[in-house]
């Protein structure tokens, strides 16, 4: 029997949520920036290491301009995981990360919350890791949707975690 | 030496250059007349060849220039899709309208002809019904055709939009049911949020010839896609059937076992909803 899990992608405007979404669903990337209005939903079938299939229903939400509390609540209800995406080149997209993650874990109990720093191709990996550590910014993965770096691995790991 | 001879010698001495010039001009004129004469001759031989080549060129335009022109047109259409659609929409709309009107007229005539020709108890009953209602038999049959039909039914977890079970009396289409379930939930959530109606739920979506009937329960909702005329009477019957199904068939066991749930849904809604 196929497992189905709802995974919501969150974050500020222009951090690359839709780029990650397109990369994992269609393995595509576009330089053209189009603002997501409302939400778009697609499905990604992931084969787990034990051979089972997991149907990941991804909700790519429109970006918020301030905090994650601005995201439409009804989109977050019933989620199995949140992916909070921030832009490694824009500090304003991760300066409230701790508060945002706290809000999510407090209000949506038992929902896995992951933080992803995107646009790794535009920064020096060592330097940004040091900077994030210094600023006490937690992250689960640093990705580049453009270069397809760490994206597939991140979603495979998330699928395994959700299937447990 | 006579005077005449002397004059000739003098002429030769004085006019040598002019004579040479005159001779050269005469020579050039002769050459030019030859060329003109030759061209006329030449054209007799060359013109048919050129005509053939031109004809061949015209014939081969679709092969040689066709792909380039097609490619250029495709590119142009691709780059200005909105403009093309905008321009074609009214034309296509009128064509479809005319076509449908024509086909409906043919269908109605065909039905009338057949019903006149055939005799059976069913036909007799229909004839009586038509007379009693004051309409033609054809119109009565057409209204029967427009009767509502269940096209697809989804049982969806309320907040997550995860598909719990689905049933369609038609063969499985190409639509991704899980994505449809997600999108329906997103639309529903959006509408319910946007109008801040408290605990009110979205119950109906109309889309051209289809109606999506939504019936809400505590942790899930049922979405039934209906084609044809969705009347109040049909709505009531459908609601009752869904309530009946929920009451007798949906428990925690079904909600956790998608395959079993789908099987029960199929069994319950296999017959036409009247």
Automatic annotation (TrEMBL), chain A:
A Pfam family assignment: Ras
GO molecular function terms attached to this record: GTP binding; GTPase activity
Family matches, as InterPro entries: P-loop_NTPase, Rab, Small_GTP-bd, Small_GTPase
SUPFAM superfamilies referenced in this protein's UniProt entry, alphabetically: P-loop containing nucleoside triphosphate hydrolases
Superkingdom of origin organism: Bacteria
SMART domains noted in UniProt: RAB, RAS, RHO
Key words, A-Z: GTP-binding, Nucleotide-binding
NCBIfam families referenced in this protein's UniProt entry, alphabetically: small_GTP
Name of the molecule in the record: GTP-binding protein
The species this protein was found in: Aquimarina aggregata
From TrEMBL, chain B:
Protein's name in the database: Cell envelope biogenesis protein OmpA
Species of provenance: Aquimarina aggregata
Lineage summary: Bacteria, Pseudomonadati, Bacteroidota, Flavobacteriia, Flavobacteriales
């Amino acid at each position: 029997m196929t497992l189905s899990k709802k995974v919501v992608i969150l974050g500020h405007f222009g951090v690359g949520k839709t780029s990650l979404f397109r990369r994992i669903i269609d393995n595509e990337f576009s330089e053209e920036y189009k603002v997501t209005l409302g939400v778009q939903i697609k499905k990604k079938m992931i084969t787990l290491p034990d051979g089972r299939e997991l149907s990941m229903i991804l909700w790519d939400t429109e970006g918020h301009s301030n905090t994650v509390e601005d995201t439409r609540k009804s989109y977050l209800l019933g989620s199995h995981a949140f992916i909070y995406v921030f832009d490694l080149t824009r500090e304003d997209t991760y300066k409230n990360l701790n508060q945002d993650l706290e809000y999510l874990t407090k209000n949506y109990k038992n929902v896995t919350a992951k933080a992803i720093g995107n646009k790794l191709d535009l920064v020096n990996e060592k330097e940004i890791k040091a900077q994030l550590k210094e600023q006490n910014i937690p992250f689960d993965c640093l990705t580049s949707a453009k270069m397809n770096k760490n994206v597939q691995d991140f979603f495979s790991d998330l699928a395994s975690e959700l299937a447990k | 030496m006579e005077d005449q001879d002397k004059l000739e010698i003098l002429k030769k001495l004085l006019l040598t250059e002019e004579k040479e010039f005159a001779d050269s001009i005469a020579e050039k004129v002769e050459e030019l007349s030859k060329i003109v004469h030759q061209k006329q001759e030449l054209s007799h031989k060359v013109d048919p060849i050129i005509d053939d080549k031109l004809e061949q060129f015209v014939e081969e335009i679709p092969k040689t220039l066709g792909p380039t022109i097609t490619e250029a047109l495709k590119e142009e259409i691709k780059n200005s899709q909105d403009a093309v659609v905008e321009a074609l929409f009214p034309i296509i709309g009128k064509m479809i309208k005319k076509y449908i009107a024509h086909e409906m007229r043919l269908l109605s005539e065909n039905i009338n002809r057949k019903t006149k020709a055939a005799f059976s108890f069913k036909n007799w009953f229909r004839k009586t019904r038509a007379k009693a209602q004051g309409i033609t038999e054809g119109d009565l049959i057409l209204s029967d055709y427009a009767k509502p039909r269940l096209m697809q039914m989804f049982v969806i977890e309320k907040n997550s939009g995860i598909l719990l079970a689905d049933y369609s009396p038609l063969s499985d289409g190409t639509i991704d049911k899980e994505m449809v379930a997600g999108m329906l939930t997103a639309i529903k959530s959006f509408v319910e949020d946007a109008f801040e109606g408290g605990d009110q739920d979205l119950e109906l979506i109309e889309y051209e010839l289809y109606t999506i009937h939504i019936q809400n329960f505590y942790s899930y909702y049922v979405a039934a896609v209906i084609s044809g005329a969705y009347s109040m009477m049909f709505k009531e019957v459908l609601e009752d059937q869904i309530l009946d199904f929920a009451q007798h068939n949906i428990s925690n066991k079904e909600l956790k076992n998608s395959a079993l749930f789908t099987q029960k849904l199929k069994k319950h809604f296999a017959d036409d909803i009247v």
